[in-house]
Amino acid sequence: MKSLNQFLLIFSLVIISSIPISALNLYEVNQNLIASRKRELESVIRFARSQALVHVHNHEKGLLTREEAENRIVESLAAMNYGTRYVWVNDNNAIARVHIRPEISGKFQTSYIGQIHQLQNEDIIFFTRANVKPVEDKRVTKLNGVTKLPDWDWVIGYGAYMDDIENEFLDIAAKTIMLNVLIAMLISLTALCLFKFRPQAESS
């Protein structure tokens, strides 16, 4: 009974002492996950813009009419649909030209004015807001990244839903907690053995 109490005391002390370090590590993990998503969004957005610029330049060269260029941009960017992640586009009249949800395509987007204003001084901006998540059809906070199509003032966006990031974080957090518990148990058992056998070693 005495050994069990000693083990529980040591175990508790190890767990308590590890909480601040674990909390800091998990905070950094969460920030790294968000930073990683932002890099992913930026990469996709830049690629989408480069695809659109091909058709813009062909229009400038006289190879395409404005309408043809617009249609090809819409077609190419609408193909960048990865389930719950998709490229969306609003034109210079704040009309949604590309969106995964048909009921939004062709509708006026009030968010355009604020976004195009911020993009006057920034190449890419990030923001979060609640959006209906495809497939699941529920409102979820979404991290969006947007950029501007030069000269045309079209806004191109791409996002990641925060619940996906949270699920990944919770998975990492659960594994971290389990590892900390195992380490604490190992340290406690080691300390208990040392305390238990030390008197015998000294008496001999």
Task: Summarize, please.
The chain has 4 helices and 6 strands. It has 204 residues and is an alpha+beta fold. Strands 1, 2, 3, 4, 5 and 6 form a 6-stranded antiparallel sheet that branches.
Structure overview:
It is a single chain. The protein is an alpha+beta fold. It folds into two domains: 1-27 and 166-196; 39-161, PAS domain (Beta-Lactamase). It contains four helices and six strands, in the order ααβββαβββα. It has helices at residues 2-60, 66-78, 111-118, 162-203; strands at 81-82, 85-90, 96-98, 124-133, 138-149, 154-161. Strands 1, 2, 3, 4, 5 and 6 form a six-stranded antiparallel beta sheet that branches. β4 (124-133) and β5 form a beta hairpin. The chain is elongated. It starts with a helix and ends with a helix.
Helix content: 55-70%
Alpha-beta classification = alpha+beta
Strand content: 15-25%
In CATH's first tier, which class of the largest domain applies? Alpha Beta
**Distance from first to last alpha carbon:** 25 Å
In the CATH hierarchy, the third-tier topology of the largest domain is known as: Beta-Lactamase
Shape: elongated
Low-confidence parts lasting 5 or more residues at pLDDT below 50?
none
Q: Return Rg in Å.
A: 27 Å
Write the layout of secondary structure elements.
Elements: H1 2-60, H2 66-78, E1 81-82, E2 85-90, E3 96-98, H3 111-118, E4 124-133, E5 138-149, E6 154-161, H4 162-203
Helix pairs in contact: 1-2, 1-4
